[in-house]
């Protein structure tokens, strides 16, 4: 069993930055894919970024603004979000792909104009 705990969300102004973190614990073997999705009000959950042994991948609208990184020793993945825009508002969910997909509880990011 795997547990994911996110932190770092909050309320910011347009153009400001936030750093999200997701700490994984439990039965984790190897460098498994981890990343982030988000869900805006009234919309479906969408992919944001992922990090795996094959590389780093980003949703088009966050390229150049968001950076995903990982502290493997701590099984923690981070999402540095710069130049935040109102359309980045939503609940951000961390995930980990093992024998199944595990999800965190979500952390709210609100970008105010």
Could you estimate the helical fraction of the residues in percent?
under 10%
Mean pLDDT: 94
Distance between the termini: 40 Å
> How big is the Rg?
13 Å
Shape: globular
Q: Could you give the order of the helices and strands?
A: EEEEEEEEEEE
Total number of helices: 0
Structural class of the secondary structure composition?
mainly beta
Largest sheet: 7 strands, mixed
Number of strands: 11
Low-confidence stretches: none
Q: How large a portion of the residues is in β-strands, by DSSP E?
A: over 45%
Verbal overview:
The chain has 113 residues and is an all-beta fold. 0% of the residues lie in helices and 58% in strands. The protein is built from no helices and 11 strands. The chain has strands spanning 2-7, 10-13, 18-26, 34-39, 46-52, 55-58, 66-71, 76-81, 90-97, 101-103, 107-112. The strands form 2 sheets. Strands 2, 4, 5, 6, 9, 10 and 11 form a 7-stranded mixed beta sheet that branches. The radius of gyration is 13 Å and the shape is globular. The mean pLDDT is 94.
């Amino acid at each position: 069993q795997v547990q994911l705990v996110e932190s770092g969300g909050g309320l910011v102004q347009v153009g400001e930055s936030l750093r999200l973190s997701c700490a994984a614990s439990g039965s984790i073997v190897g460098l498994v894919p981890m990343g982030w999705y988000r869900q805006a009000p009234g919309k479906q959950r969408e992919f944001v970024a992922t990090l795996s042994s094959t590389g780093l991948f980003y949703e088009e609208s966050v390229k150049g603004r968001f950076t995903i990184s990982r502290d493997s020793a701590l099984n923690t993945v981070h999402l540095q979000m710069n130049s935040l825009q109102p359309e980045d508002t939503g609940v951000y969910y961390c995930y980990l792909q093992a024998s199944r997909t595990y999800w965190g509880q979500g952390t709210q990011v609100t970008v105010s104009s």
